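Loading example: each entry is read as six labelled lines plus one structure line.
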Amino acid sequence: MRLLLLNPNTTASVTERMAAVARTVAAAGTEVVPLTAPRGVPYISTRAEAQVGGAVALEMLAENLAGADAVIVAAFGDPGLGALRELAPVPVVGLAEAGMLTACMLSRRFAIVSFARALGPWYRECVEYHGLAPRLAAIRLVDRPFGSIETVQDEFEALIAETAEQAATEDGADAVVLAGAPLAGLAERIADRVPVPLVDCVAAATRQAETLALLGVRKARLGNFRRPDPKPSSGLAPALADLVGGAA
Amino acid sequence: MRLLLLNPNTTASVTERMAAVARTVAAAGTEVVPLTAPRGVPYISTRAEAQVGGAVALEMLAENLAGADAVIVAAFGDPGLGALRELAPVPVVGLAEAGMLTACMLSRRFAIVSFARALGPWYRECVEYHGLAPRLAAIRLVDRPFGSIETVQDEFEALIAETAEQAATEDGADAVVLAGAPLAGLAERIADRVPVPLVDCVAAATRQAETLALLGVRKARLGNFRRPDPKPSSGLAPALADLVGGAA
Amino acid sequence: MRLLLLNPNTTASVTERMAAVARTVAAAGTEVVPLTAPRGVPYISTRAEAQVGGAVALEMLAENLAGADAVIVAAFGDPGLGALRELAPVPVVGLAEAGMLTACMLSRRFAIVSFARALGPWYRECVEYHGLAPRLAAIRLVDRPFGSIETVQDEFEALIAETAEQAATEDGADAVVLAGAPLAGLAERIADRVPVPLVDCVAAATRQAETLALLGVRKARLGNFRRPDPKPSSGLAPALADLVGGAA
Amino acid sequence: MRLLLLNPNTTASVTERMAAVARTVAAAGTEVVPLTAPRGVPYISTRAEAQVGGAVALEMLAENLAGADAVIVAAFGDPGLGALRELAPVPVVGLAEAGMLTACMLSRRFAIVSFARALGPWYRECVEYHGLAPRLAAIRLVDRPFGSIETVQDEFEALIAETAEQAATEDGADAVVLAGAPLAGLAERIADRVPVPLVDCVAAATRQAETLALLGVRKARLGNFRRPDPKPSSGLAPALADLVGGAA
Amino acid sequence: MRLLLLNPNTTASVTERMAAVARTVAAAGTEVVPLTAPRGVPYISTRAEAQVGGAVALEMLAENLAGADAVIVAAFGDPGLGALRELAPVPVVGLAEAGMLTACMLSRRFAIVSFARALGPWYRECVEYHGLAPRLAAIRLVDRPFGSIETVQDEFEALIAETAEQAATEDGADAVVLAGAPLAGLAERIADRVPVPLVDCVAAATRQAETLALLGVRKARLGNFRRPDPKPSSGLAPALADLVGGAA
Amino acid sequence: MRLLLLNPNTTASVTERMAAVARTVAAAGTEVVPLTAPRGVPYISTRAEAQVGGAVALEMLAENLAGADAVIVAAFGDPGLGALRELAPVPVVGLAEAGMLTACMLSRRFAIVSFARALGPWYRECVEYHGLAPRLAAIRLVDRPFGSIETVQDEFEALIAETAEQAATEDGADAVVLAGAPLAGLAERIADRVPVPLVDCVAAATRQAETLALLGVRKARLGNFRRPDPKPSSGLAPALADLVGGAA
């Protein structure tokens, strides 16, 4: 099985880190294909950046679709998820979606914990998009400058563990999703310091994408995620123009 | 006052039609500035197209911001609305948002009526984004091929009137929003054939954008729509890169 | 255009203050007609007072309907709004409704700030009536005695600014509606002290009523706000009895 | 115990019919005191009529409070309920409220069945006011002219039974509330013809009011239904002015 | 009338205390029949205990159904309520359900106050089951060891009063339900110390069960609570096997 | 890894069928341990049966916990899920929960399709328990007698395919969950006849349970699913009494 790990951020080292985590939970026969956005921002944290990143994700999908069995849109906040799900002939899963749905099986209400205050508005809209606001205990964000997106999980390890604990003790969260590509792999390291289950969103998304492919679900021919009718376009990246234009 | 009428579709004649409607309700001193997307699709009807269109809208905003007092994102479905509202120093209003909020003052529950079945999933997500699902009676869409997006309102005049009437009689809608840029100006022509109030979303958006500017509301310095911190980027359109990068 | 500014409170000086604010945003050709309740309480702050005030508003409507193009029920809490909207042949807008819907275009969640603790239960029911509870961040009320309803906005200027700021910083409000007829005009004075946009509900309602009239919406002949069938009555004010009885 | 059966409609014979039903379920020691509105409409069916009827109900309360242990506002739709509950030192229960809460103990979702289409918008707002929309299966209304409000339950007996049955078979209602003062006493007569439990709202309200009095609940000194602070007024009915003004 | 007071806990003295309270509000002709679970736990406080207790309650119902007019499942949390309501030919009411619905007539939002932290998750699920989460201000639980379930209401009298007061002053509860069989009868003793109405859930349930019986409601023949079709079983208590198997 | 497939129904052949499906998607190293209820009913379809079945499931858990890495409660409707999740030191997943959450990644709204009308009320409560009612398009149930629970999926193959198709075309479901242990394995056979993705709830639950175990989530020490404090009991099955009593 071939899983596209499609990172709409431009930081290749974060993509690699995610791929490494993905491979620890993927089945033996699963190939994880890491892809990094060719343009955009180093890490998406606002709706404007997600708007652009989601559009770039569509181009990445169009260019790498051949042979894929499932796709992970590998930024918490799930930029372009609905759009990708429409166009892709195979299942698509978002980091936020997979992390939250997995947390639902461990909790009545879960929290989302991440490393930057700027992420708040976008993450909240993402929770609402998935209809999971009633299951959300809180979004807790570390609000402190960090050195680099590539090392933020090391810099903030203690702070994130503490914040996750506060989500449990003060917000009543029964489980905590560690959110954001740059935190991939951190959950396992701090799990013993937090009194409720932690979910690593990259590991969760890898398993969920693999599950959908393994279940053999067919592409919808009707409803919300059927393939839209072909549409002419101008000025789009060629592969995306072809896909929007009806190419198989 | 200078209102940007920012059409994320590529069909200039539809932009012109909207501008004409906008000018019928704008105040004497209001200048309506029509802008058409330089790339994308002739008319957005899916989430994939809206993802791209919203990203293009951000570029259009960045390039035309100087001197603007308010911005209308002139496609029902409001592509990029949250992103635009974050980045713009002046108020931004969506066609769907303005149409629906205006309809709220005429109804307990309103319907959305438009000209193509393909619009359904995207419009529904838009209603949910605005938290207005409890006020929605139905989305009713004509499901029939049309000749051209430029003439669809003439081709479908009778059908749209009939569909709006069904929304009132069968779905219990107390008001109907005629949705979609290509229907601008139709409401007035068919109003007498429909037993509940009709809202023209372009006229509504023009007035709402003008209202926000007239009220003199300040740009948020806190919360959901504060200006995000500057972010480096690569490969974006220059003006957008500047705006995301923190340019005034 | 002729806008009735129908104040269901008995304090004429507050009506005058509202009319002055309304005139600053109304179009050149719009005549604002201030009307003060002939009986009731100086300012409505409870549901019992609103029940009576709403009934008086119906009498005021019946007596002043001739020639009106739109009606503002000029007390936050919108006493009698549904009843007025049923009976009036022209659009009716409430101060709370207009203020909140306008705030929706500036926020994901807005706060309501006002000058007396007693207003809380009534305002909350009003928010729920409009289905806007999911968009409400908080209702924050100054809880301190004031000298006079006519001067409360001057007495409390600093307190209201501070309370609005707390709504932004502590409740996560992205915008604040200054609520209550006695606060008309205050928003502009304190806007620079508050980190999120402020909405003056009288200015908002004036524009919204004018917008509905300008859009030329027809009176519903079906649904929630169609004119009810004529009903005999006894003991009502003559003009209201006529209106309930089916007079044009 | 002394229960005020406060009918905000002006039809005395309907009040008498309700009193007769109330007496069949009231305890031996309970005195049911029927009161008919001195002005208003023969039967309230719209929000405008309820606005006025609720204000009249406040006057009736103020004039008849002495010695009462609990109050029933005896019109489905509960005109003035919140206002009455604020001002009254004893429990107040509405016909709709009591009928619906009683139905909750017999169903997951209940229907409301009544005798006139005009009642729809008002009843729906009433259900929403009580936060019971998620428990509502449907409102079904006979839509046919009737001879007289006093005899409508006889005229429509078969039709109401049929409508209640449709609510069970077509809308999935597990219980049906027969709504409206004029239908008092009908439930028992048609119960065997309907496949789900029927609730007589007058019998339910009588028991619920008696229950609150019997439980000895104290008047709130805090929160939503504490007695509001005294307020001066002008032009109100003397007893109501006294009550609003702070009279015990 | 014969009311089964079916306690799914194994502590007979608590059953007796509840029966005593029930008799203070039951009508003269009402016989209260106390029944204590023959197996299970002394007092249910978790979902696992409620799962077992609810199954035992079904056995108790099956064995004691003859001659009953209504049934009270006498543990807050209502273990087995839906199951009991399906199988019983007569009305069934839960302590939580009756307490909360009664509180709805005294409040916009009520609180639940009880004596042990362990009860929180179960009680919250119970509130959600009844669709009453929007009416819930808070669940407040004393978190301190107590000597015995039989005397906890005496041990904690002052603490419970204080906790109820905090629910009013800090959580905005307009009424408080004292939750749990072991607190039966406490409300009356502490009512004067709490600024909002208190509801004794045993007294409320007694009256509500009696009300449903008195209203003469018929067993549903359709919908959620119709009697299920007979089903063979193995290993169940004989009376329950008979009831599940279709015995009258 | 060792997965308990805990069937609270008494039909061993259905357990075997589920185990066979589970093994097709489980990883090479995963051992699926099928367990059939020693008492109860052949297939649970009502809340009463689920109440008993859930209690039996607790006994089965207590007796088979040693060495397990995760648990599947293998009846759609998830009898005893919350109770099991409290007591088990390892993750527990329900068939309904897993099926629905998996469907969420394929749809905006999903449908549940099954083989007997009697299942409706129980399934609906299950959807609500998981907070997924807003994501539910419909529950569609074949309403026709079948020969045997062991062969119902063969008997009804065409009918189920047709019903699933109706859920897509008439209810707007974007995905369909085939519900109920007896339908395990059917999805793959009929997938090509249904225009939207189908989810096999046994396959989904197997993967979800395996995922939670693989993610290495720790047992909650706080919140909703922490292990309850030990409690004495009487008359329970010995292993369950030990588990409730605090045994490791």
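Chain B is about 40% helix and 15% strand.
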